[in-house]
Amino acid sequence: MASVLPYQGIYPKIHESVFLAEGACVIGDVEIGEGSSVWFNTVIRGDVCPIRIGCRTSVQDNATLHVTHDTGPLSIGSDVTIGHGAVLHACNVRDHVLVGMGAVLLDDAVIEPFSIVAAGALVRQGFRVPSGMLAAGVPAKLIRPVSDAERQTIKESPQNYVRYVNTYREGGYEGRG
């Protein structure tokens, strides 16, 4: 069962359509939009600042989303795919972004629309990935513009996760806390 917990009297606001998988933990000042999914053993901890997640965004297994009181909230747009084991900390991820598995995004980083943060990348504090770019490496550097095929993947990935949720629910797994 997922855990949805208050922090200092503030409860998460989770749209009724959101899929919360077993082991997911959502705490405090968190808002999650329609059609989004939070997969197994993910932690979204909005204790010292808010976390906002848009619509049709998937936060995959074992991801960690947190904030810091010094730099402020974590904002994730709509139609975003956050890969398994990614760590996002007090950054701003705009709409239509793919964050690869195991990527780390630090405070005040900004990822603009239709960009990709490669698997295993470390996006340092305050770094900006412009729209339509691939960032990779440790620390992440701008590598090249995303290809047309990659742009299509960015568009399709959120829809794939909406379908995955539907197959879980059709199989009898509701995925709510």
From TrEMBL:
The parts of the chain that form a coiled coil are none
Instruction: Tell me which CDD domains the record gives.
Output: LbH_gamma_CA_like
Q: Which one of the record's GO molecular function terms can you name?
A: transferase activity
Q: Which PANTHER family match?
A: DYNACTIN SUBUNIT P25 (PTHR13061), GAMMA CARBONIC ANHYDRASE-LIKE 1, MITOCHONDRIAL-RELATED (PTHR13061:SF29)
Name of this chain's protein:
Acetyltransferase, CysE/LacA/LpxA/NodL family
Q: Which organism is it from?
A: Prosthecochloris aestuarii (strain DSM 271 / SK 413)
